[in-house]
From TrEMBL:
CDD domains: NAT_SF. PROSITE patterns: GNAT. PANTHER family: GLYCINE N-ACYLTRANSFERASE-LIKE PROTEIN. One of its GO terms (molecular function) is acyltransferase activity, transferring groups other than amino-acyl groups. Residues 159-292 form the N-acetyltransferase domain. This is N-acetyltransferase domain-containing protein. InterPro entries: Acyl-CoA_N-acyltransferase, Acyl_CoA_acyltransferase, DUF5645, GCN5-like_dom, GNAT_dom. It comes from Aphis glycines (Soybean aphid). Pfam families: DUF5645 (PF18713), FR47 (PF08445).
Length: 292
């Protein structure tokens, strides 16, 4: 019988784990760091989704962590966020093999895996008799919180920046290209519990562009309506959300598909720093349904 080495992380240990352990590898740990911080915030606010955060309680210093985000829509995969401090990859492999906390039958999505851990995750999926498929390679862009807080921008006379509301969710979701792995409840929680801002027309109140601080605590869901592109609204809303994150003490960060040259250029123009390696998203599939 396998021995479960992971325990659920209590809130009392969260601050030490994030600030004293993970931050030794800053900004490489930024995705796991804010996933954990956001999870405790959302859990305290009765989010529609549920989080489970696990660590090795008798060896906190190695930074080994698994976070599982489950959504109320059963047809959507669990999101799994994994991390271990550099040099502890072998212990992470043993933990991933032995833990019973991951529901492999739900075909989880491993989100933004540190590249040095990608092969471990893919091998483990195969050992479970399943297939791994690369969903995307993400480029991490980030900015120190104090830099973000000092950003400034001008708002054109014909638009204004306003808060998103739950009334906007259906429209936003209809234009979201990642609705295959992210359900509408993600937007519901994001709009209610995190930062969500839009560029609105002063003429008729129409929502023209928007961005949010999503379930992993980073900037997500940036969209400009097709008819309003090339007018600077994408940069404007990124600046607005980035500044609010900085003012709240959060180092803004975003995970951008490496093929999305428009967004990569926009974030560079705003002042985001590019991380050195890509962070793969890997989905689990049944062997008989997986493609080549």
């Amino acid at each position: 019988m396998r021995s479960e080495v992971l325990e659920e992380m209590p809130e009392a240990i969260m601050e030490y784990f994030c600030e004293q352990v993970l931050k030794r590898d800053w900004p490489n740990c930024i995705h796991a760091y804010y996933f954990i911080k956001n999870a405790f915030q959302w859990m305290s606010k009765n989010s529609a989704s549920s989080y489970k955060l696990y660590y090795i309680s008798n060896d906190v210093e190695n930074g080994t962590f698994i976070g599982i985000l489950s959504r109320p829509e059963e047809e959507y995969p669990d999101v799994v966020v994994t991390y271990t401090c550099p040099g502890n990859e072998e212990q992470f492999r043993r933990m991933l093999y032995s833990t019973e906390y991951i529901n492999w039958q739900k075909k989880p999505l491993f989100q933004a895996i540190p590249f040095r851990m990608k092969a471990i995750v893919e091998t483990m999926i195969e050992e479970k008799g399943l297939k791994s498929k690369l969903y995307s390679n993400a480029v991490l862009k980030w900015m120190p919180a104090d830099v973000a807080a000092r950003l400034d921008y001008e708002i054109p006379d014909d638009v204004f920046i306003g808060q998103l509301s739950v009334d906007h969710i259906d429209f936003i979701y209809s234009l979201w290209t990642h609705s295959d792995v992210y359900p509408k409840s993600d937007l519901w929680d994001t709009v209610r519990l995190n930062i969500g801002l839009g560029v609105f027309s002063r003429h008729n109140g129409e929502l023209l562009a928007w961005a949010m601080c999503g379930s992993y605590g980073g900037l997500s869901t940036l969209i400009v309506q097709p008819d309003y592109r090339r007018r600077g609204f994408g940069k404007l809303i990124v600046l607005a959300v980035t500044k609010v994150m900085g003012e709240n003490g959060v180092s803004p960060h975003a995970l951008i598909n490496e093929k999305n040259n428009v967004s990569l250029g926009l974030f560079k123009n705003v002042g985001y720093i590019k991380h050195s390696t890509t962070l793969p998203y890997v989905v689990v599939e049944d062997p008989d349904t997986a493609g080549p």
